[in-house]
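Reading a protein record of the kind used here takes only a little practice. The record below shows the convention in full:
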Amino acid sequence: MCLCILGHHSGLTDCLNEMGQSPFLESMMQNEDKLRYNEAAAWYAENVVPPEQLDELFHAACNEISACVKRIGGQTDAASVRMFELGMLARMLLSILIDADRWDSACFNYNADPFQEKNAPDWARAEETFESFRRRNLCGVGAINAVRAEISDICCAAAEAERGIFTLSVPTGGGKTYSSLRYALKHAAKNGMQCIFYIIPYNTILDQNAADIRSALGDSVSILEHHSDVAIPSEDEQLEYKTLTERWDSDVILTSLVRFLDACFGSGNTDALRLHRLADSVLVFDEIQSLPKHCNTLFERAVTFLASACGCTIVLCTATQPALNILPPPTEIMPDPQALYKRLERVKYEPKLDKALKMMRLQR
């Protein structure tokens, strides 16, 4: 908590640098008289929170953090993993503090109430809207459509499971976008979750999936696209978009894998601010095989922390699952992916080179 308070304007301070010094301790040992600390503390106690109430809030915060600490690093004995997740917890607290600080300032400027609660997403309405769309548009005839409908039904049934980390292994053309959306909506409704994120490595796929999701959900929930290809026509809309993207303040957010990694590990406080929005959400990673290999370990540990400590459900979607070392191992949603690949096979390879060479030799 001390790290976060110290760094909520400048970012988390190093506890140890490459010279063996501690910038954190040096900052904490500044002369309190020069900072007029006693004057500030006395004004705070008189005008904001009295000391006895502050003590109660502090102990409640300690208990909340302690409960979170008990949930992390439980799947491995590696001290490095536990230290990593404690670092992620500090960054999560920093994210909450930065957002609260900036939001309070914005509300002060616009004479708004910072404590006014936003309405929770109406996932039931969104689910009903999607089911109506699915019956109209996704129930075509033919073998491929039959397989897609079966995949969608399996995802719908799997959404009843408890939160966790899952893989969704479906061949190209199997309807992963709509099936994973159906899963996410039902899972979010069942568990009262905060947001649904679609995290995708390529902007072209982001554009396509965003169009599909908007057509399927209409105005039943708020949808935000956050990537570099979004074009905002007017200055007023640009300001609103900036506010939304700074806080990821929507029910369904479509963003890039780079934005996700920035939220977890980026150096800027604006990147860190977004991290807490991932908590208590369904995170659908599409085309996860495109994750750069040098990011594997960071990604594995980040999603493990989000699932174990932050109540997230993670869905890794792809036709070819990468070799990720996630503990406990993710649960596959499809009961028999290999059989599914055979049913959706569209190309047959017939090696004919040997036969052609043999014919050439005979002709000679």
In short: The mean pLDDT is 91. Residues 27 and 284 are 40 Å apart (CA to CA). The chain has two domains: 2-109, 123-343.
